[in-house]
Amino acid sequence: IYRGSFYAGAQDGDGTLFPAQDRAFRAHWRAGTQVGARQVIGGQAGVAHVIPVQQPAFADVALGISVNKAKPASVHEMHEFHPFYDSFTQDSVLYVYPGAFADVWHGDAQAALNFAFESGWSSQGVYPKVSFNLDLNNTGVNPLTVVGGRLQIAQSQTDLDPVLTSEMQPPRGGRYFCQEDAATTIEFESFGWSDPINASINSGFMSRNGNEVVLSLGGPVSPTWPVSKTNLRPALVQAGVAIQAIEAANLSCPSGEYEACLESVKTSQMFGPLRDALFVRDNRIFAKLVGTITYDWRNNAGVLARKIQNFREDVFIAAFDWELQCGEGSEYTKLYETAINLPTDQQNYAVPFPIYQTVQPGTLQRWTFQIDSAKATRHIFQVVLQLSDGREIATRTVDLNYFKPRDPHRDRY
User: Fold this and answer.
1) Measured on CA atoms in the order 275, 278, 282, 283, is the torsion positive or negative?
2) C-alpha–C-alpha distance, residues 277 and 176, integer Å
3) Which of 51, 235, 276, 331 is the most exposed place for a label (fewest CB within 10 A)?
4) For the stretch 319-349, what's the b/e string if a residue is b when 16 or more beta carbons lie within 10 angstroms of its beta carbon?
5) pTM, 2 dp
6) Cα 317 from Cα 270, distance rounded (Å)
7) From edge to edge, which strands make up the β-sheet containing 363-373?
């Protein structure tokens, strides 16, 4: 049994596989093939996949915790809806992490301009908090009254692993569809809470069939983090691409058959070695740039680590019949919810929260609560409730890999 995402009828993305005769595991798939290492999940072998959990400390009450993925009924609360976070259980610990984005943050997925917004983040700087369900099951014969609660945190440690996005821009900024200049400036933005050190790129323009590199480009990138802009124009000119002539050319395609028109104009010497990389999308001409950015970064202990991140960009080169086009162109119920903001880089502390409710015998009471933090942080914690009879009950341990991006245009350290 496979539980996860599909594309074109094949496993594609993060998913969990429950083999018939083996332990279940999480992994990443591309076009039906497992990519990278698998993460074996605790429990019995086989599709039943029974996970042994610790017995509750008291026979008449149990406290459970899970990620809340219920979609809110109100559109005004949609910024709090986050299929962004996923979870799995191993050795009685609930591990919570930022879904497929984990490959962008800690893995080898490529940098992408829109990954933040596709992941549910807000361009206004409002980012989704992670929300949990807290379930108290009164299995006894007497009412139980909850008179208080707290988060008991073993560790909160800032995660300084950089997160980069990439984009190609014209030299004067803006987007390619708003200016006639070729988009020869590569921009990297750092959304993580540390900046790359000694960053350099190794890239190349690919032939249309993607089988060969027709023009290689590489070297250091601008160290002006958190926003790094490096102009590739001098390297293109040196390689024989007449950028100024391309921008000055009045490319016309009266038939509207842009593929045929491209075949006609790309024989011009002004495109140089890029001619075999050119392709059209509508009336615009692009070339695909594929590469890696390699850099060092320092973790919390000040130790240097090296990271390599892939990027892929369709670079705008020119357009036919240019026209500037920059104009206008189960029912969710809140039973209990409180936003709890956890600090960073602390250990062994508690954050109390107010709660008072009586749970009748044979009743399962659910509350929801949210956790936020100022930075991307790993939090290891339990939720503890105090009962009126003096007992305390606790959830299993939660290991939360919480991500909040830095705004490279606003946030500093």
Assistant:
1) negative
2) 18
3) 331
4) bbeeeeeeeeeeeeeeeeeeebebebeeeee
5) 0.64
6) 12
7) 61-67, 130-138, 363-373, 339-342
